[in-house]
Amino acid sequence: MTDWVLRLIDAGGYWGIFALMVIENIFPPIPSELIMGIGGIRVGQGRMEMGWLLFAGTVGTTVGNYFWYLVGHILGFGRLKPLVDRYGRWATLEWKDVEALDHIFGKYGQIVVFVFRFMPAFRTMISLPAGLFRMGHVRFLLWTSGGALIWNIILAYAGYILGQNFRDIDKYVGPVATACVVGAVLFYLWRLATWKPRG
User: Fold this and answer.
1) What phi, psi does 136 have (nearest 5°)?
2) Given Cys at both, which of 63, 67, 109, 116 links 126, Cβ 3.0 to 4.6 Å?
3) How far, in Å, CA of 120 to CA of 10, rounded?
4) 34 contacts 2 by C-beta, under 8 angstroms
5) pLDDT tens-digit map of 104-121
6) Measured between alpha carbons, how far apart are the two ends of the chain, in Å?
7) Cβ of 9: how many Cβ atoms within 10 Å?
8) pLDDT by residue (tens digit) across 47-87?
């Protein structure tokens, strides 16, 4: 995967960074750690500028997350009740749980979106409920881009400081991201097996 990301970045420059970050946030298997880390290496080599790298990466991240936000927004809170009533068992949700989540997003949505920007796998997933529970467009975009910018600064400067050694991060990031996904699946299966509706 590292070589493919390298080729796309070298061929597309900032547009390559933008495209990869959009893709990474719609289809999460490509780690942003790798994309922005390689971008930081290119800054250290004098082939990119840090400001434009961060701009392209942050805009790409925001666009990718906005896609899932819009999916949730179009589906809408009102259409959710028949789905929860019918398929709630598989989501281990009752309508009271959905109302509680709606309350949380109404009150603390920006904090939830911001904090989740730093969590593997959940970075993208949080955009869907943000749209479903009608978090404001501007609020979502501001907090998503703010969290993404901070995360991208950390990754890009890590690549800039570590140089070519940063390529080794793919050996560690891949297994960690996979472990997070496996952990989430196992938690879901456990919850599915033990969940009992309160009603």
Assistant:
1) -60, 140
2) 116
3) 25
4) yes
5) 777 777 787 888 777 765
6) 48
7) 24
8) 899 999 999 999 999 999 999 889 888 887 777 777 766 76
